[in-house]
Each structure stands twice: as structure tokens, then as C-alpha cells.
Write a structure and sequence with these properties.
With 1324 residues, the protein is an alpha/beta fold. Helix 5 runs antiparallel to helix 34. The two termini are 69 Å apart. It is 60% helix and 8% strand. It folds into four domains: 655 residues, ABC transporter type 1, transmembrane domain (ABC transporter transmembrane region fold), CATH 1.20.1560.10; 84 residues, P-loop containing nucleotide triphosphate hydrolases (Rossmann fold); 153 residues, P-loop containing nucleotide triphosphate hydrolases (Rossmann fold, 3-Layer(aba) Sandwich), CATH 3.40.50; 261 residues, Rossmann fold, CATH 3.40.50. The strands form four sheets. The protein has a six-stranded mixed sheet with strand order 6-7-8-3-9-10, with helices on both faces. It is found in: Membrane. This is MDR-type ABC transporter. It is a multi-pass membrane protein. GO terms for molecular function: ABC-type oligopeptide transporter activity; ATP binding; ATP hydrolysis activity.
């Protein structure tokens, strides 16, 4: 970046985000007040010079009479009173500019947050292939925090310093132009060093931000998919990847620390060298004046010039800690600006394009080809020509990855085709207004996503962009807080209908529409049984309800606006057959009068379609009705045969007619005596992968309940004690930095001694030669001090920066480690969400980093200077010092009050900022849902409301903080005025010399100024302390305490690693299917999720799964099937009963090493950002590195090897954030390969084939049969074809095992099972 661009960068940041008139007024007022606040002190310097002349008069005139002494004192008193008046004016100006800039900075940060999120929400979904949600979280928290820190009150302080500098030179030129002209050489030296240093600081800060965002992305993905991480013990492997990114950030941070240290050292060197030059030249002028009484400067004039220029350079040096904050802010803004300024390829918020009043729903795809931008070499659709007629039901089927879901996304214009044209009713989609197009379409995606709102709000989201004129008047309600407030009232105990009636007819209408849609989607029954009904929170990404329940809510959301086009992409894949049949019947009823496009693998769901399109590898291979395609005997007929459950028509018919009550034949090994709780058992969260509990569901209901992270009450001493182990490895560097900081702090007092002696020796009562000699000596002393300061500052700031980077790295890695050592119960209680926990690493890590070398070094040197000044002044002139120190407690008190005000504000609203980041990252994670439903504005409104608290209180807090900070400056001036008044009395009385007085005054003056300025760093100190406390409390609950050397692993891990390596060696010599199986027993297990202890999920469940058997769990959605496997993995502990694996009750021990022999394929298939090889290797047992051959063998068994082999980069292909580079079916097979590579004793499959086509399912089953030889398999499936060959099928209903047996046995005697079979059988 060129110099001109860098100069333009900061003003561009200040004026970013379209500031309002109020913002511009605040900025202008702040600038004017800051400039004005820099003027009084140089004027005070003139008065100081006049006072010095008065003192010279008093000391030189020995024949002074009592009357003249009184007259002299009166003259001094008048000048001191003038100082007080100027101090009052400065207090008003400083308070005003602090308030203006603090408010402006807060508003700028809010504007940038909103504009950044707003523009991201406009982008097309493919843009996020390279922008993971974790990076967005880092930008919204860490980078915005950096920008606010660099655009608030410190801007005013810097402007005031520059104003002081300019005013000082103007006064200096008036008083002694020769001396001032000589010292003007300071300016280019200062600016050159500032620009050169800032270039490198900005460069390294930008790189640090990039690497930190990458690390945050890794942590975000891992926290969002905690179940997979814990099931596979993958936290160590992910920690390595996380720490690699942080090490890169640390390297750049060390370079930045050195750059800051060098910049600071050179700035101080220039300042003190200038002082040396000033005293040398000043002494010559005074000697000339003393010798000739003309052609020279008076002592007062020379003193004024030197005093104000020394102060100006000192003040400008103290601006150095702020310079790197400004540069870091510019670097962070540049990161944001890339996303903020990008124009989307498809803009769902634009008003451009043709707006249709109504549509028939006739889609035409003409020669459509499509490739994803992130993988242009893979052709997803290849010259596809299909017609989706209006008012007809069209179905698309085919193998996984054949492009079916892509067609759904293209029709909704989430993507644009690479080649070809798509039209709706004859209009090219590109010519239509995108928002208008989507208003006619409802899309239920293959992996439905709900937002962290109530179920009521989630279903109502379907109405936000409705083409129905009857829904237009509801838009204000849908975009406002009414529904959220209504849900909150219901959670507090009010009735939904009663509460909605109080809010008006519009809200009542929305509630009625939502309930009607829920009934159509077969969701009303389970919703009503939830503790808070429609007011129940769905959780982030819908994690608080089961996969099947989430799918039904998503379907209700699609149906609520009565769309002209309904697109169902595997909309019932996670449902049991009965729910699916009810929904199919409901859709059939409403299908008349609309276009329906269904994508399905379960062929029984689409036999009634008007047209069925069969796809293979991005091409259409055949199409026609069910009967036509069956008659052809082609690809479709083959798929139907693969999904046939009955052996023959006869067996099906006889099974249908068999007596449904023959349950007396049950020879199940299970005890089915357990009591079934009331129907609310269906509320149980049968939770998929990351939503296995609803810990948030209750805790977040009340605004009084704090969200994590909590700030523990920890004293400064306890914090220092807690962080001491992390500092211990760096004691040598700490010692050097402390010595440097002590020298820097002591140098200010050293400067005062030199200054006092110099001015004392430049007394016109002395001989000219004595004056010149003193000037030469003390000038040399100042130059020596300049050299000392150069090295001391480099060592101090670089040293503290080095230690800071090391501690931040350790704290972040150990925070990551501690987070993943906690169980699911901890993660999902007290309102903890992935985004809130991520803030430990992003926001708190950044706040800790904010206490970098410059801040810590400055704080320590100023504190040391204050102590040194107090000691020195008492030694030199205790009578003057004692009186002046009376104001020091007030000075300290004002600074501490500012810290207290800021600290309390931070504590009150820390959660609001974390929650807002949560909303933003969730929206990006669910960008297809947000785009297809046109929820951009709704998301922004919710985001703004989440920050309403801190925004409302900002004015009051800023006013208070500005007052206390301005008061520190005012009290500093009062200390000086008191010192001059009391010192003048002592000099006139003959108790002290002028030299002693000047040392005391200058020492206290410098201390007061520095102390006042130090509290400009109050926000960093306040945020840093709170962050330190939170991080320390998190690390303390982990097995590792805070320490500096992370290379040493904890002993228990080493032991377990040895065991793992031992078992690995055994496994290495074996092959798939040769493992020792494990038996699983449930004995009278009772379980409720921690957040809903009154709702029984499992009620006295007893069942036994023999070692080496293939066991299947079937039953309706929400019956508790997924809960059973979470207890096998011991993600939770049951309230009563035992879960026994191989004779060991896993509920009685905290040891989870038994998970090493279990592999899980979750209901929602989770992949992490990284290569295919990396993702599958995560399945390996801890401490065991799998070879590429092992990975390839697992992929062959999972029927995914050929797909991977066909990719240009093979196993090194990047999966993208959340595995978005692969289709649902491909992700499912990769998840299965990850499980198989573990070579487990128990293989758990939760809906392993829900996203697979029949052919892929058959091949996968063959692979699983081979892989599962000799191991125990527990499978959950709604597709009965998947588990028909199971050794035993357990029928789970309402948290109980109500029956068990083989497929044939249950077909004979269980009506519910038989009904499921009938629903899934395709008539040939």
C-alpha cells in the first residue's frame, strides 16, 4: 500500500458506513474541541515563564523589602489564578471532545457491524464457499472491537496533542524564533518515523487478523459440531490445526511488537535529542542576555520555549501507543471493506428487475450447465433440458451427486447457471426481480435450517416474502419485535391465544396462519406437547428439536404462505413413515392449483407424481409417469426393485390381513414393562448431531438470565497469580522488559532533575561562562538520556509485546482445549451457544491481545514514574511535595472511577455483543435459508434489537467516562497551580531554591500529565481485565491450567496415548471385520434433558444388544432413538439406571476412553474445513495416525472412493466450510468412511442412508456388511430397507422399547411396524 493510500485509509475509515448528520456533527465538534483543548497548555507555559522571571527577580534581588515580597506574591497569585481559569476551559474542551469521539466511535462501530452484515446477507450463497462463519464471527467481534478502539476518544487525544504541538511552536516562534526554528527539525523526524513504523505495524496487524480469523473459523466449526468432535476424540487433531493458524498469527505479532518498540524508541530518542539541542541553544541565548542585557532571550522566554516544546514532544511521544491502535483499526477495516464493498452476482434485496403480479409456475431449463465457482472443473449439470409444467407435480430422482438439489437451487435463483437459460412462465429468471421471484416459491431444503427464534417465529418466516396480497399488511409485524415479545410472554406463562389477542388482529392472524401450516405439516401435535408450545426456542440452527421435528417445522414454514411453487428437496427424509404419509396426504390435498417439484430418494413418496425425471451424473436419462417408467424397465424400475421391502405380493397381502394383536408371540429379550409417560415424551429431543439437548431452551427465556461467557469476580492479585505460570517460561524476557520499563519510567524523573538543574543554572544572576558551561553539560546529559531511552523503549515495548503474544497464544490454545474437554451438558446449559463460547477465543483473546507491549509497557512506565516522582520530590523538597500530593488521591480516584464506569458497562452488555455475533454467524451458516425466504431485513432487525441495550446506554456511560477522564486532566493542572502557588511562597520565604522547586514542579507536572493520559487506555485495561478473568475461569475448569509451555502434554493424556498406540498396533495388523465386538445393555434407564427435567425422554428403558449383532432402532420421530445413542456415547448421564458396555457401567465413571472403540455416523453429516483426507482421518483413534491406504479402504466400503478418485485433487480436495462442496449424499458417505476408518467395536449409524439414492444405499449396505463383520452395529433408520437384515429390530415409542424381533417377526405381529412397511413399499 502506497503512502498516499495509507494516509487516505484512516479518514476513509472515520467516514465509513454513511455517517448521519448527527455523526458528522459529533465528528466536527470533537475535532474543534480537541484542537481547542490543545491550546490552553502552551498558554499556561507562557505564564510559567513569567512566573520564572518573577522567581529570578526574587532570588537575585537580595535587598527585597517585605512590601515588595507581598507585591510579588500578589502578582504570582494573579498568574496562578489565570492558570486555573485556563485549566477550567481545558476541562470543558477535553470533556467535550472525549464525549464526542467516544460516542462517534461507538456509533461508527455499530454502523460498520450493520453494514458488514447487511452486505454479506446480499451475497449469493456461492460467495460463502470461501468465507466460513467463523471468519465472519472474528470480523464482527475482534475486528469491530479493534476499529472501535482506534476510532474513539484516542482520536481526540491525538488531535489535542497535535494542536498542543502546533500551538507550542507558534508560541515558541513568538518568544524565541531562533530556538524554535532550530527545533522545528523535530517535525520531519517525527512524521518520518511515524509513517515508516506505521507501515510495518499495519502490515503485520493485517496478517495477524487473517490468521486469527482462520483459527476462529476452525474453532467455530468444531464448537458447532461438538458431538462429532467428542465422539471421535478429534479435539486434539483440530487443536493442532487451530494452533498452527495461531502460531502464524503469533509470528506476525512478534514482528509487530518489534516494529512498535523500534518506532517508540526512535520517537523518544528524537524528543530527548531535541531537548538536548534546546538546552544547549537556550543556554547560549541566556548567556548573551546576561552578558549584554540585550540581543538574547530572557530566562522566562527561553524557559517557555523549552518547557512547552519539551512537553509537546513528550506528549507526542506518548501518542505512540495510540498510533498502532489506529493502524490496526485501518488494517481491520480493510478486511471488512472487501466484503462491504462487494456487489453480489445475485442480489435478493434489489428492487431492479421485472416484478410479476402472479405466476402459473411453468419452469423451463434449456441447455443448462452448471459448475460451482469454487470447483469449476467438476460439471454438476451438463446441458440439461427439462420442463416443470405449471400446476403439475414433477419429481426428480437419481444417484447422490447427480445435480438434483442444484436444480432446486437454480429454480429459486440461489445460483445462476454457467450456461443455458432458465425461464419461469417464459421470463428468463435473470430478468426477474429476485425477491419477487422468491415470493412465489417455497423451498424445503435437503438439510433444513431453523434460526434461533421461537417455533412461532420460524414458521412465520415463510410469510415475510409472500406474494399473497392478503399477507402484505402483516409485514410490519413480521419484521418487528411483536412475535418475539409474544413468544417471551408465553414462555413466562401466558396463553398463546390470549396474549396474541392483546397485541391486535394482525398478530392473531399470523398465529392462526402458523398453526394451520403446522397442522398441514404434521407438526402441530408435537409442538403443542412442547413445554412452551409454539413459543419454544428452536435453538441455533434448530439444534433444540429432533431432525424429524425440524423437518416438519421447515415444511410448515414453506406451506404457510400458500406458495404458487412448492419445491421439496428430500423434505421428509428424516421422518418416520407414518408422519411422511400424513404429510404426503396433506401436500396432495393442497397440490391442486400449484406447481410442485419434489426431489426424493424414497420412491414411495413420488409414485403419484405427474412426471418423474431420472438423472445421472448431471444428465437426464429418462422421464415419465411411474407406470410408464416401470413399463420401460429402465433405471427407474431398477431403483424401485432395490427399495422393495416385501418378498412378494402374497406375503405383503397376508401380512396386511394378519391379526394385528399377536404381540403374545413376542420373544424379545427386552423388558417392555416400563411405564410410558404422558404424550409429552414425544417432545423429547431426539436430537441430531449437534442438538442433543435443549440446554438453552429454558435458560435463555428470561432476559435476566445471563448468557455465557460470564465474567467472574476476580481480584487483580488473583489474575496475576493465575497468569503467573504462563509468564514463568518467559522470565528472562520479562526481566528485560521490566528493566526497560523501569528505565523509561525513571527517565521522566531523570528528565525533571536535569530540567530543574538546567533552568536553575540558566540564572541571569550567574556569569555568562557559567551559564554556557551548564548548558553544554546538561545538554549532553539530555542526549545521554535520549540514547538510554532509545534502547529502553525498544526493549520494554518489544519485550512486553513478545510476552503478550506468547501468553495470548497459550491462553487461546488452552481455552480451545478446555472448551472441548467439557461435556455436552455443560455446552448446552446456562445459555451457552457455539457463538458465545467462540467469543472466548475471538473477542476475549483480542481483548487480552489489546494489553500488548505498548499498553502494558506504557502502564508500567507511568506507574513507575509516579512512584519515582513521589519519592524524588519528597527527597528534594518535601514541604512542596507534601502539599501537592494532597491532590494525587483525587487524580487517582478520577481515573479509577472512569475504569469502574467502563467496567460496569462491559459487564452489563458483554452478552449483548456476543449474542449479536451469534445472530450474524447463524445467518451466514444458514445463508440459503435466509436468501430463499428473503429474511435479510428480518435478520438485520433482530441484530439491531440484540444491541438495543448497549446502544441506549452508550450516551450516559460515555458522558460519565468522559467527565472522569477530563477531570484527571483538570486535577493535573490544579496540582501544577498548587505547586506554583505553594512553591512561590517557599522560594520567597527562602526555604527552597528555584532549582529544587523546578525539579518538584516538573516532576509532578509530567506525572500528572502522563497519569491523565494513561486513562485514555482505560477501555483497553477494562476490557483486558474482564477478558483475563473469563479466560482464566474457562482454562481452570479444564485439565490443564494456564501455562506458557504447551509442548508438554498432561500425563493422563500421555498414558491414554500410549494405550491408543498399543491398540493401534494391534489394529494395524488387522483388517476390517476382524474386531472384537462389544455388548451393550440398558437397564431401567430413565432420562430427561437437563433443561427440561420434568419431561421424561426415556422411561425405564431396558434392552440388550448382544456383541457382534446388527441391532436397529425404529420408531416415530421424537421417540427417543437418538437419545439412546447419545447415552451409549455417554454424552449425557441418565438420572436412573445403567448403560453397560462390555460389562462396564459407563455412567459411573468420568473416563470416556471407551469411546475409542465406538464410531458414530450422526444424523446430520458434518464435515470440517480441510481436505477429504484430513476429514476422514479425524475418525482415527486418538494417538493413531491412519495411512492413506486405510482411508481409501474405508472410502471403498462407504462407496465414495470412485467419486473422490474422479476429483482433480483426489483426497486432497478441500471440503469447504461445513463440507459445502459436496452433496448431501456424498457428505453422508464421507461421514460413514470417517467412522469405518476407526475400525470400531461398536458402529452407531443414525439415519445413515437418509440422503442416499437406492443404488448408493445398496452398495453402501454391501460395504457395511463387510465392514461390520465381528462388530456390534446399532442403526437408527426410518427407511426400513436399510435395516431389514438386522439381527434384531427394537421398536421405540415414547421412550420405551415396546417390541423387538426380526423384520419378518415384527411384520407379522406389530401393526405399527407393518404399517411402516406398507407406506414404504412401491407398487410395481
Amino acid at each position: 500500500m502506497g503512502l498516499a493510500q495509507k494516509l487516505a485509509g484512516y479518514p476513509r475509515l472515520i467516514l465509513a458506513g454513511n455517517p448521519s448528520k448527527l455523526d458528522k456533527s459529533l465528528l466536527l465538534s470533537g475535532i474543534l474541541c480537541a484542537i481547542a483543548s490543545g491550546v490552553p497548555f502552551p498558554l499556561i507555559g507562557i505564564i510559567f515563564g513569567q512566573l520564572l522571571n518573577d522567581f529570578n527577580t526574587a532570588t537575585c534581588d537580595q535587598s527585597e523589602t517585605p512590601g515588595s515580597a507581598s507585591q510579588l506574591q500578589n502578582g504570582i497569585n494573579g498568574k496562578i489564578l489565570m492558570i486555573v481559569y485556563l485549566a477550567i476551559a481545558q476541562f470543558v474542551m477535553i470533556g467535550s471532545h472525549l464525549f464526542c469521539f467516544s460516542t462517534f466511535g461507538a456509533r461508527l462501530a455499530q454502523r460498520l457491524r450493520e453494514r458488514y452484515l447487511q452486505n454479506l446477507l446480499r451475497q449469493e450463497p456461492t460467495y460463502f464457499d470461501n468465507l466460513p462463519p467463523g471468519e465472519v464471527a472474528s470480523r464482527l467481534s475482534a475486528d469491530i472491537q479493534t476499529i472501535r478502539s482506534g476510532t474513539s476518544e484516542k482520536v481526540g487525544i491525538c488531535l489535542a496533542s497535535v494542536s498542543f504541538f502546533v500551538t507550542a511552536y507558534i508560541v515558541a516562534f513568538i518568544k524565541d524564533h531562533d530556538l524554535a526554528a532550530m527545533l522545528i527539525s523535530l517535525i520531519p523526524a517525527y512524521f518520518l518515523m511515524s509513517f515508516v513504523g506505521s507501515h510495518y505495524i499495519e502490515k503485520y496487524a493485517g496478517l495477524m487478523s487473517d490468521y486469527a480469523a482462520s483459527a476462529a473459523s476452525i474453532a467455530s466449526e468444531a464448537l458447532s459440531n461438538l458431538t462429532v468432535v467428542q465422539a471421535f476424540g478429534a479435539n486434539k487433531r483440530l487443536e493442532e490445526k487451530f494452533s498452527d493458524a495461531l502460531q502464524s498469527s503469533e509470528r506476525e505479532g512478534l514482528k509487530k511488537s518489534l516494529a512498535i518498540g523500534i518506532q517508540s524508541g526512535v520517537l523518544y530518542f528524537v524528543a530527548y535529542s531535541a531537548n538536548a539541542l534546546a538546552f544547549w541553544q537556550g543556554s547560549k541565548s541566556i548567556a548573551d542576555f546576561a552578558e549584554h542585557r540585550s540581543n538574547g532571550a530572557s530566562v522566562g522566554a527561553t524557559f517557555t520555549v523549552i518547557f512547552i516544546l519539551v512537553e509537546a514532544t513528550l506528549l507526542l511521544s506518548q501518542v505512540a501507543p495510540f498510533v498502532h491502535l489506529f493502524m490496526a483499526a485501518v488494517a481491520s477495516f480493510e478486511k471488512l471493506r472487501t466484503d462491504m464493498d462487494r456487489e453480489p452476482l445475485i442480489d435478493g434485496t434489489s428492487t431492479l428487475g421485472l416484478t410479476l403480479s402472479k405466476v402459473a409456475g411453468n419452469f423451463e431449463f434449456r441447455d443448462v450447465s452448471f459448475t460451482y465457482p469454487s470447483r469449476p472443473e467438476i460439471i454438476v449439470l451438463d446441458q440439461v433440458n427439462i420442463s416443470i409444467p405449471a400446476l403439475k407435480h414433477t419429481a426428480i430422482i437419481g444417484l447422490s451427486g447427480s445435480g438434483k438439489s442444484t436444480i432446486a437451487s437454480l429454480a429459486t435463483r440461489l445460483f445462476d447457471p454457467t450456461h443455458g437459460e432458465i425461464s419461469l412462465d417464459g421470463h428468463d429468471l435473470k430478468t426477474l426481480n429476485t425477491r419477487s421471484l422468491r415470493s412465489f416459491i417455497s423451498l424445503v431444503q435437503q438439510e433444513p435450517s431453523l434460526l434461533d427464534r421461537s417455533i412461532l417465529e420460524n414458521i412465520a418466516h415463510g410469510l415475510v416474502n409472500s406474494s399473497n396480497p392478503e399477507h402484505v399488511h402483516l409485514k410490519t409485524i413480521l419484521l418487528g419485535p411483536e412475535l418475539a415479545d409474544l413468544a417471551a410472554e408465553v414462555r413466562e406463562g401466558q396463553n398463546l391465544l390470549t396474549a396474541s389477542e392483546k397485541r391486535g388482529s394482525g398478530v392473531v392472524e399470523v398465529v392462526a396462519l402458523v398453526r394451520k401450516a403446522a397442522a398441514l405439516a404434521d407438526a402441530d401435535t408435537f409442538i403443542e406437547k412442547l413445554q412452551f408450545g409454539y413459543a419454544t426456542l428452536a435453538g441455533s440452527s434448530g439444534r433444540l428439536i429432533s431432525g424429524g421435528q425440524k423437518q416438519r417445522v421447515a415444511l410448515a414454514r414453506a406451506l404457510v404462505k400458500d406458495p404458487a411453487v412448492l419445491i421439496l428437496d428430500e423434505a421428509t427424509a428424516a421422518l418416520d413413515s407414518r408422519s411422511e404419509r400424513r404429510i404426503q396426504e396433506a401436500i396432495a390435498k393442497i397440490a391442486g392449483g400449484r406447481t410442485v417439484l419434489t426431489i426424493a430418494h424414497r420412491l414411495s413418496t413420488i409414485v403419484g407424481a405427474d412426471n418423474i425425471i431420472v438423472m445421472h451424473k448431471g444428465r437426464v436419462v429418462e422421464e415419465g409417469s411411474h407406470s410408464t417408467l416401470m413399463a420401460k424397465g429402465g433405471a427407474y424400475a431398477d431403483l424401485v426393485k432395490l427399495q422393495s421391502l416385501a418378498t412378494s405380493h402374497e406375503s405383503r397381502d397376508s401380512a396386511t390381513q394378519r391379526d394385528a394383536t399377536s404381540e403374545s408371540d413376542d420373544f424379545s429379550e427386552t423388558d417392555v414393562d416400563a411405564c410410558v409417560t404422558k404424550g409429552s415424551a414425544h417432545e423429547s429431543v431426539e436430537e441430531k448431531e449437534s442438538g442433543l439437548s435443549d440446554g438453552q431452551g429454558v435458560e435463555v427465556l428470561s432476559s435476566k438470565t445471563p448468557d455465557e461467557p460470564e465474567t467472574p469476580s476476580t481480584s487483580v492479585w488473583m489474575l496475576l497469580k493465575g497468569y503467573a505460570p504462563a509468564v514463568r517460561p518467559h522470565l528472562l524476557m520479562l526481566t528485560a522488559a521490566l528493566i526497560g520499563s523501569t528505565i523509561v519510567g525513571g527517565a521522566f524523573s531523570g528528565e525533571a532533575v536535569i530540567f530543574g538543574n538546567t533552568v536553575g543554572s540558566l540564572d541571569i544572576c550567574k556569569t555568562p561562562s557559567s551559564i554556557r558551561s551548564s548548558g553544554n553539560f546538561y545538554g549532553l546529559m539530555f542526549f545521554v538520556l535520549a540514547i538510554i531511552e532509545l534502547f529502553a523503549n525498544v526493549v520494554s515495548w518489544s519485550g512486553f509485546g513478545w510476552i503478550s503474544e506468547k501468553i495470548v497464544y497459550s491462553a487461546r490454545v488452552l481455552s480451545f482445549r478446555s472448551l472441548f474437554e467439557q461435556d455436552l451438558q455443560w455446552h448446552q446449559s446456562k445459555g451457552r451457544t457455539p457463538a458465545l463460547l467462540l467469543s472466548y477465543i475471538t473477542r476475549d483473546g483480542n481483548a487480552l491481545a489489546g494489553l500488548s507491549g505498548s499498553v502494558i509497557g506504557t502502564f508500567l512506565s507511568i506507574t513507575i514514574n509516579l512512584v519515582a516522582a513521589i519519592v524524588l520530590t519528597h527527597i528534594i523538597a518535601w514541604k512542596i511535595a507534601l502539599v501537592c500530593l494532597a491532590l494525587v488521591p483525587l487524580l487517582l480516584g478520577a481515573g479509577l472511577m472512569e475504569l469502574r464506569v467502563l467496567g460496569q458497562f462491559e459487564e452489563r452488555h458483554e452478552n449483548a455483543y456476543s449474542k449479536s455475533v451469534d445472530i450474524g454467524t447463524e445467518a451466514i451458516s444458514s445463508i440459503k435459508t435466509v436468501s430463499s425466504l428473503s429474511l435479510e431485513q428480518e435478520t438485520l432487525n433482530v441484530y439491531r434489537r440484540s444491541l438495543k441495550g448497549p446502544r441506549q446506554e452508550t450516551f450516559q456511560v460515555t458522558l460519565q467516562a468522559s467527565f472522569w477522564q477530563a477531570l484527571t486532566y483538570f486535577l493535573g493542572n490544579c496540582v501544577n497551580a498548587l505547586a506554583y502557588w505553594w512553591g512561590s511562597k517557599q522560594i520567597i520565604a527562602g526555604n527552597y531554591t528555584q532549582t529544587q522547586f523546578l525539579i518538584v514542579v516538573f516532576s509532578l507536572l509530567v506525572s500528572a500529565m502522563l497519569w491523565s493520559q494513561m486513562f485514555a487506555l482505560a477501555p483497553e485495561l477494562s476490557n483486558g481485565r474482564a477478558a483475563m478473568a473469563r479466560i482464566l475461569s474457562l482454562i481452570d475448569i479444564g485439565s490443564d491450567k494456564l501455562r506458557g509451555d504447551l509442548s508438554k502434554r498432561r500425563p493422563n493424556n500421555e498414558a491414554s496415548s500410549e494405550k491408543d498406540l498399543e491398540s493401534t498396533r494391534e489394529a494395524k495388523s488387522s483388517h476390517y471385520g476382524s474386531h472384537q465386538a462389544a455388548a451393550v445393555q440398558f437397564r431401567d434407564v430413565h432420562f430427561s434433558y437437563p433443561a427440561r427435567p420434568s419431561v421424561k425422554v426415556l422411561s425405564g428403558l431396558s434392552m440388550e444388544i448382544p456383541a457382534g449383532s446388527f441391532a436397529a432402532l425404529v420408531g416415530p420421530s421424537g421417540a427417543g432413538k437418538s437419545t439412546i445413542i447419545t447415552l451409549v456415547e455417554r454424552f449425557y448421564t441418565p438420572q436412573l439406571g445403567s448403560v453397560i458396555i462390555n460389562g462396564v457401567d459407563v455412567t459411573k465413571s468420568g473416563d470416556v476412553s471407551f469411546r475409542d472403540s465406538i464410531a458414530l455416523v450422526p444424523q446430520e453429516n458434518v464435515l470440517f474445513e480441510g481436505t477429504i483426507e484430513f476429514n476422514i482421518s479425524l475418525g482415527a483413534k486418538p494417538g493413531h495416525a491412519v495411512s492413506l491406504e486405510d482411508i481409501q479402504e474405508a472410502c471403498k466400503l462407504a462407496n465414495i472412493h470412485e467419486v473422490i478418485d474422479g476429483l482433480p485433487n483426489g483426497y486432497q480436495t478441500l471440503c469447504g466450510p461445513n463440507g459445502n462442496q459436496f452433496s448431501g449424499g456424498q457428505k453422508q458417505r464421507l461421514a460413514i468412511a470417517r467412522a469405518l476408518v476407526r475400525q470400531p467395536k461398536i458402529l452407531i449409524l443414525d439415519e445413515p442412508t437418509s440422503a442416499l439414492d437406492a443404488e448408493s444405499e445398496r452398495l453402501l449396505q454391501n460395504g457395511l456388511e463387510k465392514a461390520s463383520e465381528g462388530i456390534t452395529v446399532i442403526a437408527i433408520a426410518h427407511r426400513l430397507n436399510t435395516i431389514r437384515k438386522a439381527d434384531r429390530i427394537y421398536l421405540i415409542e415414547a421412550g420405551q422399547c415396546v417390541d423387538s424381533g426380526t423384520h419378518e417377526e415384527l411384520l407379522k405381529r406389530s401393526p405399527s411396524y407393518r404399517l411402516n412397511v406398507m407406506h414404504q413399499t412401491v407398487a410395481e
